[in-house]
Amino acid sequence: MLEASLNNTYRDVLDDAMCEDEKFNPVYVEQILEARTRIFDEMCKATGTPDTEYNELSSAKFNARSVTKKMLAEWLEAVCCIFDEYATPVLANSIKLAADLDTMKDEKIIDQKKIIDLQEKIIEKKEAELQSVKTVVQTTVQSEIKSYSSVLKSTCNKALAPRRMQAALKTATEEDGRSRNLIIYGLEEKKEEKLEDEILEVLSHLDEKPRIVSCSRLGKDSTADKEPTKRNFQPIRVSLSGTDHVRQILNKTRKLRTVEGYTRVYICPDRSPDQRVSHKKLVEELKQKRISEPSKRHYIRNNSIFSSDT
């Protein structure tokens, strides 16, 4: 190998590991440049060329009597050895590194595009939710205004308008707020309970982990009862950050019936008083249906009772 006869003057600055290292290392570049500098300095000295004026080295100067064939052969052998045994692997690794950097750059651009797309979708979703609230308010207000107009024509009761509009706005606001709420029944009530953690534990069994805005028990503290077996655990109202999580959780709530420790825990929408009355009537009708037609499957969907053959 050429390396075997490389002059020690050049060898002692070159790390033999660069011949086998498969990773680019800038230290190797500095070593190759140092070896090159030593060879060129020796050429300048032999040809009478000023130090560091490497661009003045020419074939005419190498033909000078002071330069022997042996010197030329040693220089040529050293340059070939450095280039073949050391510089070539470093160049190959630098090409690979450049390719890897290009790939990483392309991947970063793709990731940035994905992030931008996701941000745009989030913005669109927020705008859609805002528009939904505006539509609910506008529809309710318009309906109440029409109703007011009709009453005004027949009774000329001008004082009715502000009250109805206030009621309409209040109704729309409450409906929008309830659409982000859940009511949880049957969750054991404890003293000094960490309610949010317990709710997240329940929802984890439904593979859901929403952001909880607020949560609280409704009614009197049941832990004050003397007999634990007679306790009636107070329901919990949970407010989430968006309506999508509410829908997803309500669609999965039946899974709790098969989870040990949560078979008597129920999750329901946050209904208004009128809605609760209507739903209670539906439940009573459902019970009667199951008694009168036990061979069929009966269920509530979209505020109506449906029956199907089992």
Features of the shown structure:
two-stranded antiparallel sheet, 6 strands, about 300 residues, disordered N terminus, 4-stranded antiparallel beta sheet, alpha+beta
- Report the β-strand fraction as a percent range: 5-15%
Radius of gyration: 41 Å
What is the ordering of alpha helices and beta strands? Answer: HHHHHEHEEHEHEE
The strands making up the biggest β-sheet line up spatially as 2-3-1-4
Give the distance, in angstroms, between the N- and C-terminal Cα atoms: 86 Å
- The outline comes out as elongated
* SS content category: alpha+beta
Count of alpha and pi helical runs: 8
Largest sheet: 4 strands, antiparallel
The mean pLDDT is 80
Helix content: 55-70%
Let me know the number of strands: 6
Which parts are unreliable, with pLDDT below 50 for 5 consecutive residues or more? 1-5
Q: Which SSEs are present, and which pair or pack?
A:
Elements: H1 8-11, H2 26-47, H3 59-62, H4 69-155, H5 160-178, E1 181-185, H6 195-204, E2 212-217, E3 236-240, H7 243-252, E4 266-269, H8 273-292, E5 296-301, E6 304-309
Helix pairs in contact: 2-4, 4-5
